[in-house]
Amino acid sequence: MRKVLAAAFVTAAAAYAWPAVANDGLMNIIKDPKQWGIQTGDYANTRYSKLDEVNAGNVGKLQVAWTFSTGVLRGHEGGPLIIGDVMYVHTPFPNIVYALDLNNDGRIIWKYEPKQDPNVIPVMCCDTVNRGLAYSDGTIFLHQADTTLVALDAKTGAKKWSVVNGDPKKGETNTATVMPVKDKVIVGISGGEFGVRCHVTAYDTKTGKQVWRGYSIGPDSDILVDPEKTTDLGKPVGKDSSLKSWEGDQWKIGGGCTWGWYSYDPETNLVYYGSGNPSTWNPSQRPGDNKWSMTIWARDADTGMAKWVYQMTPHDEWDYDGVNEMILTDQKMDGKDRKLLTHFDRNGFGYTLDRVTGDLLVAEKFDPAVNWATKVDMDRSSPTFGRPQVVSKYSTAQQGEDVNTKGICPAALGTKDQQPAAFSPKTGLFYVPTNHVCMDYEPFRVSYTAGQPYVGATLSMYPAPNSHGGMGNFIAWDNTKGKIVWSLPEPFSVWSGALATAGDVVFYGTLEGYLKAVDSKTGKELYKFKTPSGIIGNVTTYEHKGKQYIAILSGVGGWAGIGLAAGLTDPNAGLGAVGGYAALSSYTNLGGQLTVFALPN
Amino acid sequence: MTNSARGWLVSGILPASARLSALVLGAVVSAALVLPTPSHAQDANTTAAKPTTEAKEKDDLGKYTLPDGDPTYNIAPDGTLDWYTYSGYRRYHAECHVCHGPDGMGSSYAPALADSLKTLTYAQFMEIVVNGKKNIGVGTADQVMPAFGENKNVMCYLDDIYVYLKARADGTLGRERPSKREDKTKAYTANENQCFGRPG
Fold first, then answer.
1. Taking the domains of chain A in order of start, what are their residue ranges?
2. Cβ–Cβ under 8 Å, residues B82 and B59
3. ipTM for the complex?
4. Annotated catalytic, A359?
5. Could you report the per-residue pLDDT of A117-175, keeping only the tens digit for each?
6. Please, which residues 50-69 of chain B have a Cβ atom closer than 8 Å to chain A?
7. Is the CATH code 1.10.760.10 the one for domain B53-192?
8. B44 contact A CB<8A
9. What is the pTM of this model?
10. Which CATH class is domain A33-598?
11. Spatial separation of the C-alpha atoms in residues A546 and A560, rounded to whole Å
């Protein structure tokens, strides 16, 4: 492993001229398709691999090469990292880390198990998932459930340093991975259902010292915006842009959490991510646009200062967190080369923006069932440019407190949750795991107690009516046109991150536990294998000793495991409609396993 | 699997009807259910309703109680649901369902309360909600429930949530949103405001 890394450094110095970059190692690992150095596949979050030994012609022959039990029975999100000859596997709470020797049938080189107070478990809304480890410069970063960020020696598992990012007693927890950028590691936080005011923090990778922290909500000095220079759809945001959009002190418990994925563009030196829902779920308790919740952020990696923002869902009324990944691509659009950012939001719109300026180019529904808004206003001369046109009968704010607003699509878990999409430069298409679920939503007044749930709405969810009856789709999307190219119906929400490869194959997992491979051009199913538990992890690929492997974590859970375990009821179908078909528990059970696939020798 | 009985927190905001003496009971209830088993999935079809034929009393809050003093649900012959059970439906789906799943059906994360309430007594239910509960062990799916004793959004509606889940457990109420219901009484509103410390 040492040799590989040393070689990587040499190449990096020759090929790139990033100024004073501390983690050329990671940059180079990312560029090497044999390794998988970052959860998102690359800084651009494309989840695309240049490996092509496994291809559309032979993927049907895929076999299980080896397996590994994590020893934990909970929702397993994220995926392993592969650095040189070592695979790093993480688990949900208690957040164990395993270093596995790929030269020795996955023998455990070291294991790290943090001691955490189990009282953090129930403070984690929707299961104790963890979306995986990060790596840079010989260090593995683990961001624990209790918000402790730990730097481990990648070779030995010895702790180098740790820092605490939040307080679980106030409802501050973590489920996300972190993103190393140069000499910093970018860290988010959860707690939107507990009235936490959330932030993004950069820590020094060598010492764990805090370098900057930008809140989603609050005074300009807290949220790191420049009233003159930070722009919103091309215009300066102005003074107190966040504070002016809240009433009273509600912003202090305003949410805007940062538990999603992060991307980074070395050219613009910007970090991109989305902020989550404003607290509470009862919109009547927080009049105003609630800025900058539900927002796409572009922040300078060195200072944290925001270059631009765009709020997708002002004054959220449905829990449509804006945290899903921002996928950075260079594509032709209307004949011009564009630097794009593509984002599939919980609110059901697929957005394409210019990632340098924050200009909005496309906003179209990526599930035809989406009905809470007719469209996003794309008229540049309109005072509501960029705002969704909310349909009154699906507006839980306009219908009011103690009223059950029915038939809203999508449900609170969104047309897509955190499960990341993939992009293939070969097809120019995005491959998106989606939910096809609608809801009734009744907001009511709640009081705030630190560290206690702060929700304020009753929800019931059901499969999208008048459709195929399933709760998910796996789609291919054209981001320049805003159009679905093909769509595969799935009985359950697709809660697994996709992988696209140069072999013209796209992989994803299903809640029943299948790993599926489909043709990247047509969506035709080429292979499936049922793993021991439902899949909410993300598909990974790597090459070892000249052979390509596909790896996936199984372990049902997450919000999908909570909402779908017993099946959903369809209020339109009447009593008794819930059968074995609808209940996920009829298909799978708790688990915690890594399954690794390869072609036969 | 281990169960630990803890001392209970003084909340001071329990509904007036809460029989505090009951809370000193240790929790000795196993919550081994994780994913609801398929046989429960057809809950609405298969539950053999055990009609509550005992005489119920209704107070001015709109709450029905059994002769032993436990709160209970009431569904009129025309399907009209009492206010407490309806309120419990709403509060359950705000405070509890993110772990215990829709309609008390359980999840990959927490047990199905529509099953648990088949055996849990009112007193045991109260003790667990107030103090929380832990099942921690090696090689198991750890389960931890927080103490809600200081959470007014839960404590002010303990009886509501209990009777809703009891109706679910008895098979009397299916997996639906209750439609016809009794009105909220003035006394209930006054009690609610008092519980939250809001001016009535």
1. 33-598
2. no
3. 0.77
4. no
5. 988 988 886 688 999 999 999 999 999 999 999 999 999 999 999 999 999 999 999 99
6. none
7. yes
8. yes
9. 0.88
10. mainly beta
11. 37
